[in-house]
UniProtKB/TrEMBL annotation:
Membrane-crossing segments per the record: 20-40, 47-65, 71-89
Organism for this UniProt entry: Kineothrix sedimenti
General function of this protein: Catalyzes the condensation of 2 ATP molecules into cyclic di-AMP (c-di-AMP), a second messenger used to regulate differing processes in different bacteria.
Lineage per the UniProt record: Bacteria, Bacillati, Bacillota, Clostridia, Lachnospirales
Superkingdom classification of source: Bacteria
Molecular function terms, GO-annotated: diadenylate cyclase activity
Subunit structure, interactors included: Probably a homodimer.
Protein name as annotated: Diadenylate cyclase
Catalytically driven reaction(s): 2 ATP = 3',3'-c-di-AMP + 2 diphosphate
């Protein structure tokens, strides 16, 4: 018993002292590793990670059996492989950094952008006019793509179109998307209560889980919702159905009242966490 006590005492004496900063470091590293793994799981990096694991197992076996030539090749290729991984994952890394910069904690410490006016992003009249236009276009199956800017600027996509700078009205929107008119092809960008640009090109979503039945218009709407915090209203030219794309999700089969409800959620301010959960829950129910 005395020997066991001496061994335990010796063991604990050799253990380094743990400071409170060490505990904080462990928590921070655990938090970062968890979120990195979650990010990898939802991107192309997941398949790449599995490939890296296979290569790591192969190199471990090479080290065990002293395969020096293979180990020498691996040592000289590591630098090139790291650069190649960065190039391959460039879109995912850019999106991850944009998401990090979009966090409220960063924005509160580093106010990179001027705050939005408190009176709201869109007036009641603007919401009503957009809903009215979409309902009218849905009846005659006129395709439409209306992007509503929130806190993140859409100037990058605005420059791909033709400047309009007109007050939002149902007549203006219907005329823009009318068949065989110069401005009907592409997206309309709405900033505040004005249509700022038409015939804009949007990035297509590369989400492989999207239904194959979705056309270019819906994929473009989801793509811009993944890249920014904007909301996009879609009217299908094939079915006449109204949908909304927001935060990478598509909410379909909306009528005038449900579309107005969606638009009013972001009318006055960006969504808080409670409203985000409400959106996500409704998206699951509507699919």
């Amino acid at each position: 018993m005395q020997q066991i006590t001496q061994i335990v005492d010796t063991y604990f004496k050799r253990m380094p002292s743990i400071r409170w900063t060490d505990i904080v470091e462990i928590i921070i590293i655990s938090f970062l590793v968890y979120h990195i793994l979650v990010w990898i799981k939802n991107t192309k990096a997941w398949s790449l990670l599995k490939g890296v694991v296979v290569i790591a197992v192969f190199l471990f076996l090479a080290a065990v059996f002293n395969m020096n030539t293979i180990l020498w090749i691996a040592q000289n290729v590591v630098g090139i492989a790291a650069t190649a991984i960065i190039v391959i994952l460039q879109p995912e890394l850019r999106k991850a950094l944009e998401e990090l910069g979009r966090k409220n904690i960063i924005s509160s410490i580093f106010p990179f952008e001027p705050s939005k006016p408190e009176e709201g992003l869109f007036s009641d009249r603007t919401v009503n006019e957009i809903v009215k236009a979409c309902v009218e276009m849905a009846k005659v199956k006129t395709g439409a793509l209306i992007v509503m800017e929130q806190t993140q600027s859409l100037a990058e996509y605005e420059r791909t179109g033709i400047a309009v700078d007109g007050i939002v009205s149902s007549q203006l929107l219907v005329n823009i998307f009318e068949h065989n008119t110069p401005l009907h092809d592409g997206a309309v960008i709405v900033r505040g209560n004005r249509v700022v640009s038409a015939t804009c090109y949007l990035p297509l979503s590369d989400n492989m889980e999207l239904s194959k039945e979705l056309g270019t218009r819906h994929r473009a709407a989801i793509g811009i919702s993944e890249a920014t915090d904007s909301m996009t209203v879609i009217v299908s030219e094939e079915t006449g159905k109204i949908s909304v794309a927001y935060e990478g999700s598509l909410y379909g089969s909306l009528d005038g009242d449900s579309l107005k409800e969606k638009l009013r959620i972001i009318q006055n301010k960006p969504l808080d966490e409670k409203k985000r959960k409400l959106w996500k829950g409704r998206a699951r129910n509507e699919k």
